[in-house]
Amino acid sequence: MLHxxxxxxxxxxxxxxEQGESIECQKGAMSWMTPTITMKTGLGGGGGGLLxxxxxxxxSAITGESIFRNTYTAEQGPGEIAxxxxxxxxxxxxxxxxxxxxxEKSAYLANTPGVQMDIFFQKKLGAGFFGGEGFIMQKFxxxxxxxxxxxxxxxxxxxxxxxxxxxxxxxxxxxxxTCTMDVVSVGGGIGNALLGGEGFFNTKVTGPGKIWLxxxxxNNLAAALIPYLPLKNN
Length: 234
Fold this sequence. Notes:
By secondary structure, the chain is mainly β. It has 2 domains: 1-84, Double-stranded beta-helix (4-Layer Sandwich); 91-227, Double-stranded beta-helix, CATH 3.60.160. It is 15% helix and 46% strand. The chain contains 4 helices and 19 strands. A hairpin with a 5-residue loop joins β1 and β2 (12-17). It is globular and about 60 Å long. The termini are far apart.
């Protein structure tokens, strides 16, 4: 399968499928496709029997993602399918067979067959409750490619073993599964926390491994727009 990302900062992922090739996505993610491609809806990851189905329902309830996934297959000849982002930014692809990728819940766009999507729980409660990245993230492993949405532009850092980066709420888009995450206080006393505008805690990610940071988290943009929204008159 060939793919390209076009038209940033309002990007679209365009995949060119040879006959018999497939790509999977969250329901409702497809933007347009050629008529040679057909869609089949099923449980994410496919199979697994009753217990597997119950597990997928539980994951869906926790992550907020739909339990159903759409598989698009070029059954009637080569075809083209497109997936547009839901937010201005970028789309990046990852080969997951080299240890796996951990990403924020809202980043997932599509994947090739063979990619497994699982819940990634923060081992330390503080990193989930106070770090701002959420107690639950998503881990992608197996074989193949996963495509993730990045809000704004992307900055990549390759952390050495023991090297760390302090990250404010919402800016961590993804990291290699070899990285670890913790939460640290801002420091400098209560004055810094209350008056500095950075909150009480930062997320600390430690290598070895790569991290991908996004420059315009959705929550920051939403907060910036609130003063300009019209108030409802009673």
